[in-house]
Design a protein that fits this description.
Protein name: MARVEL domain-containing protein
Organism: Rhizophagus irregularis
Radius of gyration: 22 Å
Number of helices: 9
Shape: elongated
Keywords: Membrane, Transmembrane, Transmembrane helix
Length: 192
């Protein structure tokens, strides 16, 4: 696989993993809402009440959701402008942005294990609470899968940061190769 193909594959894999995380987070919210409505059907639980309860059980979700949105915007921008940036890049700022996202996803990973400090474990064994409400087991599994894919995102950003450093160190060879492959005037790099 070429350097360009590998780098594009990393970005697409990040995008697909992020879509999986979004789907799993929506699944958790839906099943947690059903669970809270089922146990408090006599009292009407407000959105704020059950989201605060969700926060206590599943870590710092506000931060997680902000990181998901910021990452989604960056990855979509990166994929949309990939061809143009490949011709004119690589850029040093991409290295720093990838390291920034690596640190963000590491922080997300540690905030997702926040409940382990209160419950002492992160497993979805069949417990008494899961026997009556099977959706609760699905919620627990979605939480663990989302956490695992979040750590995978950190690993992907580590790989893209390393690959960005490699591309930056070999930028002259990449530009020479791009110049050989381009037989038409490049509108991004006009010749004066």
């Amino acid at each position: 696989m070429t350097k360009k193909g590998f780098y594009l594959c990393l970005r697409v894999t990040q995008y697909l993993a992020l879509l999986c995380i979004i789907g799993l987070e929506i699944t958790q919210l839906v099943f947690f809402k059903r669970y809270k409505d089922a146990i408090s059907f006599e009292e009407s639980a407000t959105w704020k009440d059950w989201f605060e309860s969700f926060y206590k059980r599943h870590g710092i979700k506000y931060f997680y959701y902000v990181v998901i949105v910021i990452t989604l915007i960056y990855i979509l921008y990166s994929l949309i402008t990939f061809t143009r940036r490949w011709k004119t890049g690589p850029y040093r700022k991409v290295i720093f942005v990838d390291i920034f996202f690596l640190l963000l996803w590491l922080a997300v990973g540690f905030t997702n294990i926040y409940p382990i400090y209160f419950d002492g474990s992160l497993n979805c064994d069949i417990k008494e609470e899961f026997k009556d409400l099977p959706g609760r087991l699905t919620e627990c599994r979605a939480y663990l899968a989302s956490m695992a894919i979040g750590w995978f995102m950190a690993l992907l950003f580590l790989h893209t940061a390393i690959h960005s450093v490699y591309l930056w160190s070999h930028r002259d060879k990449i530009h020479a190769q791009n110049d050989k492959n381009v037989s038409y005037p490049n509108p991004d790099n006009p010749v004066v």
